[in-house]
Design brief:
Layout (H helix, E strand, L loop, with lengths): L1 E5 L4 H10 L6 E6 L8 H4 L16 H5 L3 E4 L6 H5 L7 E4 L9 H7 L9 E2 L7 H6 L3 E3 L3 H15 L3 E12 L14 H4 L4 E2 L9 H9 L8 E7 L6 E9 L5 H11 L6 E3 L17 E8 L4 E8 L7 H11 L16
Parallel strand pairs: 1-2, 1-3, 3-4, 4-6, 5-6, 7-9, 11-12
Antiparallel strand pairs: 7-10, 8-9, 10-13, 12-13
Length: 341
C-alpha cells in the first residue's frame, strides 16, 4: 500500500517513519514536512538511516491524493485545513486533535480555531471501538495523556467500581510531548534536574477528550481533575489515577478485574504482584503497563499506567489503527517489547 506521512519532521513523524520502515505491507512513498521541505530526512532524524539520501517534500494535495493511506502529524488546527481537499477514498489517521472531540463547545473552550467535527476515535482497547475503526476511512488518533488515562480508568468505570465524577489524575510526560518547536522552558538546562507542573488548574486540552471517551462506559457524567507534569526525560508518560470506591473491594480483586478486562489485548499488560509500571520499560513500543491497588485508608482506587508518548501515545497507536482500518494483523510492524527495563 502507498503510504504518506505529512508532518514528518516532528517527533511523532520521525517515530512513524522509523516504525513504517519495517512494516510488512505499508510502503512509504510520500514524506512531507512543509517547513523543512528540501532538507535531508537524516539531517533532522539522523537515526533513520534507511531513509538516507531522501529529502522531505512540500505539502502537496496531489501527492497526498496519490496515497492509499495518510498519516497526518501536524500541529492542532492544521490537518482540518487539508482534509477538505483530499479524495474520499484516501484513508487517513490524524495524530492531531482536530477531529477528536464530539462537542463543539468543548473544542471552543480548549482549542483555538473553528470546530471541524469528529471522526471515529482510535483507541482500540476501549470496548466497542474496534468495529468502528475497522469500518472507518478517517480515524482520530487519541492524545498521549488521554490514552494513558482512559486505559487506566476504563476497567474501573465499566465495572462500576469508582465515582465517575471524582477522578483525580497526575501524569508526568517527557519533553517530546511538547513538540519540536524550540522554547526556553524546554531547553535542557531548564528541564534537567527539575519537575514542574503546567496547564495547572484543569485547563489541559485533553480533559474533554478523556471525559468523552470514559462517558461511554459510565452511567453518570465523568469529571476529571487532571494535572500534567513536565519530567526531565525525552519520552514516556507515567500516569497516577485515583478515585473514590463505591463498593468494597480489595487489591487482589481489583487486579483480577483489570486483568480480565485486558485479557485479550496484546498491547496492555496488567502487572502482577507488587511490580510497578516504568516508562523505561515501554519506550519504543506500543505497550501499556498498568498496576492497580486499593488504598483502604482513604477508600480510593489507585491506578498507575506507563506508555511511550511517541509510541502508544502517538505513532505506534496510529499504525495500530491503520492496520485495523486496512484489515491487517493489528500488530503488524509493532512490538509490545520496550527498549529497556
Amino acid at each position: 500500500m502507498k503510504i504518506g506521512v505529512v508532518g514528518a519532521s516532528g517527533y511523532s513523524g520521525g517515530e512513524l517513519l522509523r516504525l513504517l520502515s519495517n512494516h510488512p505491507t505499508f510502503d512509504v512513498e510520500y514524506i512531507a514536512a512543509g517547513s523543512s521541505a528540501g532538507a535531508l530526512i537524516t539531517d533532522i532524524h539522523p537515526h533513520l538511516l534507511s531513509y538516507a539520501g531522501k529529502t522531505f517534500e512540500t505539502t502537496n494535495v496531489e501527492r497526498m491524493n496519490g496515497c492509499d493511506l495518510l498519516f497526518i502529524a501536524l500541529p492542532h488546527g492544521e490537518s482540518s485545513k487539508l482534509v477538505a481537499q483530499l479524495a474520499p477514498e484516501v484513508r487517513i489517521v490524524d495524530l492531531g486533535a482536530d477531529f477528536r472531540l464530539k462537542s463543539a463547545s468543548s473544542w471552543e473552550k480548549y482549542y483555538v480555531g473553528d470546530y471541524a467535527g469528529s471522526w471515529v476515535y482510535g483507541l482500540p482497547e476501549i470496548p466497542g471501538q474496534r468495529p468502528k475503526i475497522s469500518q472507518a476511512s478517517r480515524v482520530a488518533n487519541p492524545g498521549c495523556y488521554a490514552t494513558s488515562i482512559a486505559l487506566a480508568a476504563a476497567p474501573a468505570l465499566s465495572h462500576g467500581l469508582i465515582e465517575p465524577h471524582d477522578i483525580v489524575v497526575v501524569a508526568a510526560s517527557g519533553t517530546t510531548g511538547a513538540g519540536r518547536k524550540a522554547t526556553t522552558n524546554l531547553l535542557a538546562s531548564e528541564v534537567m534536574g527539575s519537575l514542574s507542573s503546567y496547564k495547572f488548574g484543569g485547563v489541559h486540552q485533553h480533559t474533554p477528550e478523556i471525559e468523552e471517551t470514559l462517558l461511554e462506559m459510565s452511567e453518570a457524567p465523568v469529571k476529571i481533575s487532571f494535572t500534567p507534569i513536565l519530567a526531565p526525560m525525552p519520552r514516556g508518560i507515567l500516569t497516577t489515577l485515583t478515585s473514590r470506591l463505591v463498593r468494597d473491594i480489595d487489591t487482589k480483586a481489583a487486579q483480577e478485574i483489570y486483568k480480565e478486562f485486558f485479557h485479550h489485548e496484546d498491547f496492555v499488560t496488567v502487572l502482577g504482584g507488587a511490580a510497578l509500571p516504568r516508562t523505561s520499560a515501554v519506550i519504543g513500543s506500543n505497550s501499556t503497563q498498568i498496576q492497580v491497588a486499593v488504598d483502604s485508608h482513604t477508600n480510593r482506587l489507585v491506578v498507575s499506567a506507563a506508555i511511550d508518548n511517541l509510541g502508544k501515545g502517538a505513532a505506534s497507536q496510529a499504525i495500530q489503527n491503520a492496520n485495523i482500518m486496512c484489515n491487517l494483523l493489528e500488530g503488524s510492524g509493532l512490538t509490545a517489547t520496550g527498549l529497556s527495563s
